[in-house]
Amino acid sequence: MKDVVIAVLLGMLIWFGSVIVRLENYRYASFVGMCSQHVDLVQRDRCLQSKETRTSPFWHLAYALGFL
């Protein structure tokens, strides 16, 4: 039973980490101004989701968690 709990918690940790990375990438792309402010919101959202702002997901995680 203990192994199942550990596996579930590890899976949740990986899932939360991937969500944090995605949100930090979106936030930083918006902050830097990678997408035009003059397009409609749907196009801007798609643009921000498609941008890659840092070289590695680990950098996003470190910035989002306040390590850097």
Explain how this protein is built:
The chain is mostly helical and 68 residues long. It has one domain. The chain is 72% helix and 0% strand. Helix 1 packs across helix 3. The mean pLDDT is 91.
Tell me the number of structural domains.
Answer: 1
- Helix and strand composition category: mainly alpha
Beta-strand segment tally: 0
End-to-end Cα distance: 37 Å
Major pleated sheet: none
Q: Overall pLDDT, averaged?
A: 91
* Residue share in helix: over 70%
**Hey, roughly how much beta strand do the residues contain?**
under 5%
Principal-axes shape call: elongated
What ranges have pLDDT less than 50 throughout 5 or more consecutive residues?
A: none
Number of helices: 3
Order of helices and strands: HHH
The radius of gyration is 15 Å
Give a brief description.
With 68 residues, the protein is an all-alpha fold. The protein has one domain.
Characteristic key phrases:
68 residues; mainly alpha; 3 helices; elongated
